[in-house]
Amino acid sequence: MSEIPPCPACGCGYAYADRELLVCPECAHEWSATASAEVLEADIYRDANGNVLTDGDTITVVKDLKLKGSSDVVKVGTRVKNIKLVAGDHDIDCKIDGIGAVKLKSQFVKKA
């Protein structure tokens, strides 16, 4: 019998297989057995050099970034401390001194 992974939604270890889906009895979350490995790989965020990013890292901007709706520009070499990774197109939430809260794409930063 194959090892059934824990529920990705709540972490419950009592998930069971129902035809081609895996089901969590605690939160009723259903997911595909083949998509389990893809979901784990999708949760890994990498910088411009391929280094893995984690919450709380310090990063450096590698390209001048114009901020939409503002005349401000984030310059090359700007260091940003204590980042937070989120799902979506702009996957880094952070605060930049002098600018404020900003969302960045991981492809335009490198781990410091």
UniProtKB/TrEMBL annotation:
One Pfam assignment: Zn_Ribbon_YjdM
Domain Protein YjdM C-terminal positions: 46-112
InterPro entries: YjdM, YjdM_C, YjdM_N
Domain Protein YjdM N-terminal: 4-32
Top-rank taxon: Bacteria
Record-stated family: Belongs to the YjdM family.
Name under which the protein is recorded: Alkylphosphonate utilization protein
Species the sequence originates in: Candidatus Litorirhabdus singularis
